[in-house]
Amino acid sequence: MNKVIIIFGLPGTGKSTVGTQLAQDLRYEFYDMDKVLPLEMKEKLKNNEIIQEDDFSKYLAIFIKNVTALAHKKSVVISASIFKEKHRKMLLDSIPRHILFVLDAPIEVLRTRLRERPGHFFGGALIDEAIKESDPVFAPHFSIDANQSLGKVMAEISRHLT
């Protein structure tokens, strides 16, 4: 299996921005969970509805299958908002050799960023629920303060990769 870098974080932490830049810098493939989330799930989130356990578990199984197939072909950066530890474990267990980064930012920063993303399927109204539903990350990882410039975030990640 090729190198796999996984970026977790709540909505608004900058996973897609950081993941895109990191993949470009490393010349890896970038696979963004947000981009492959089924339309019906995006619509639920747009309507401030929480995705039910069964729906997410089915989607996650497909996501994991696609990610593992991709990782067998090329090195990849993956970004994902996965709130439950059991779901994260499913992904991490399927990719035994990975490096995990968790982006974190204060709630007010997340709210501001989400308000500044008009039209995005995950609006600011759900962030409190996402925080309430989110389990701590127990897997070995590097925690990154996402409340700093992209350049500083990238420099911090780069230090952990060398």
TrEMBL record:
Family in the record? Belongs to the gluconokinase GntK/GntV family.
Enzyme class label: transferase
**A GO biological process this protein is involved in?**
carbohydrate metabolic process
The keyword Zinc-finger is assigned to this record: no
Pfam families, per the entry: SKI
Transmembrane spans: none
UniProt keyword annotations, A-Z? ATP-binding, Kinase, Nucleotide-binding, Transferase
Which species is the source of this protein? Answer: Candidatus Kaiserbacteria bacterium RIFCSPHIGHO2_02_FULL_55_17
GO annotations of cellular component type: cytoplasm
Reaction equation(s) it catalyzes: D-gluconate + ATP = 6-phospho-D-gluconate + ADP + H(+)
Under InterPro entries, the record lists: P-loop_NTPase, Shikimate/glucono_kinase, Therm_gnt_kin
GO terms of molecular function: ATP binding; gluconokinase activity
The EC designation for this entry is 2.7.1.12
Metabolic or biological pathway, per its Swiss-Prot or TrEMBL entry: Carbohydrate acid metabolism
The name this protein carries in UniProt is gluconokinase
Q: What is the lineage of its organism?
A: Bacteria, Candidatus Kaiseribacteriota
